[in-house]
Write a structure and sequence with these properties.
397 residues; 17% strand
């Protein structure tokens, strides 16, 4: 027996040629069952008539007359044997077809590839089997298919795979036999490079790829006083290169990250103190006037302007290769540039200056009151908004 014959036979049983053989076998047995039923009915009728009338009855029913020396009962018996032979022959033909396909068809003799199913809510690339992230050798089509089969299949079930942190400049390859994203599973790139190279890609239940999740959609705020906000990261690059095909629909969002808010301006300087009031005056005949009141303090200085918002990141690039190019319509793609960050708030105005001291009293005269404090200075102007990032693109390779 050739090696791998039985596994080949199992696969051959699912081929289109085998289906034709099944249909032919069913039709043959249906015909034979009907013919057997008809024979039983005619046999009962023949037994109820005179022997010399039976030949004429057969001729009327089957358009055939038993040859000389053959009774009607013998003809019916031979007809039953013929029907049994046809049934046996139909089975033999179906078996020969399946055996021929198994021996001559190009059927893989390896077992089904192992499958890794991950349903954890949040994972990183270390959870992916190492052989699926190793670089692929340069192999022709059939050999490459067998290499992907050897690596096994991967299913992400309602799981989020984050391939790296923002600005990690990481490149992650996932090369396996069948890659499934199901029940809302998604891959977060954070602007890094992702290459998907399975034999077949299957996406269902709103699964897809996103550059930045909602809680990381904006770059950090500048902590420097009046500093420019951090620029948003670009949407990165995603390559989808299935060797065979892509099944389902998928969302790919490679929007750039929004720029960070600019730093707040510094507080204004305090205003100067008001002038001292006039001192009291007195003489031999008493107090001429008491001490004068101090003058109000000067207003505080304006706060400094807020920092400019950071530039939004550019949208990412999606590269399609192979048969998936013709299925571009099944991919919902977006790669808008990130919004510019808001300008930082202006610094608070400086406090008003202290009121001037009252004039000194003396002799019979009292001192003057202290002046009122100055008003606080105005708040600084808000920084300008950052630039919007450039849109990304979808390309074919």
């Amino acid at each position: 027996m050739p090696p791998g014959f039985f596994s080949s036979l199992k696969t051959a049983a699912l081929s289109p040629y085998a289906f034709v053989a099944y249909v032919g076998l069913i039709l043959a047995w249906a015909y034979i069952a009907l013919a057997q039923h008809r024979l039983k009915r005619i046999s009962k009728v023949i037994n109820a008539v005179e022997p010399d009338e039976r030949g004429a009855l057969l001729a009327k029913e089957y358009s055939v007359f038993p040859r000389a020396g053959l009774s009607a009962e013998e003809w019916i018996r031979s007809r039953k044997h013929l029907l049994f032979f046809w049934a046996f022959l139909a089975v033999i033909i179906a078996v020969v077809v399946l055996t021929t396909i198994a021996l001559t068809g190009k059927v893989a003799v390896t077992d089904d590839p192992k499958e890794t199913v991950i349903a954890d809510p949040q994972i990183d690339p270390t959870r992916i089997p190492k052989e699926m992230t190793d670089p692929l050798p340069n192999l022709p089509g059939e050999a490459l298919k067998e290499e992907l089969r050897r690596r096994g299949s991967l299913t992400l079930d309602n799981s989020t795979l984050t391939i790296g942190t923002v600005n990690a400049h990481a490149t992650i390859l996932i090369a396996c036999y069948i890659l499934r994203l199901q029940n809302g599973a998604k891959i977060v790139t954070n602007g890094n490079v992702l290459i998907l190279q399975p034999y077949r890609l299957v996406v269902s239940g709103s699964g897809g790829i996103v550059s930045f999740p909602s809680d990381n959609k904006q770059a950090p705020i500048s902590s420097a006083i009046g500093g420019i906000g951090f620029s948003g990261a670009n949407g990165g690059r995603v390559e989808i290169r299935p060797l065979s095909d892509f099944l389902g629909t998928m969302r790919v969002n490679l929007d750039g990250q929004n720029g960070g808010r600019g730093g707040a301006g510094s507080r204004g300087l305090p205003g100067a103190q008001g002038a001292k009031g006039e001192d009291a005056s007195w003489g031999l005949f008493g107090c001429n006037h008491g001490g004068g009141g101090g003058l109000p303090g000067f207003p505080g200085q304006p706060g400094s302007p807020g920092g400019e918002g950071g530039k939004g990141g550019d949208g990412g690039v999606l590269v399609l290769a192979g048969n998936v190019i013709s299925q571009k319509g099944t991919i919902e793609f977006s790669a808008a540039g990130g919004d510019g960050g808001d300008g930082g708030p202006g610094g608070l105005g400086g406090p008003g200056g202290e009121g001037g001291l009252g004039g000194n009293g003396g002799g019979p005269c009292g001192g003057g009151p202290r002046g009122a404090n100055g008003n606080p200075g105005p708040q600084g102007t808000t920084g300008t908004k950052g630039q919007v990032g450039l849109p990304g693109a979808i390309k074919s390779s």
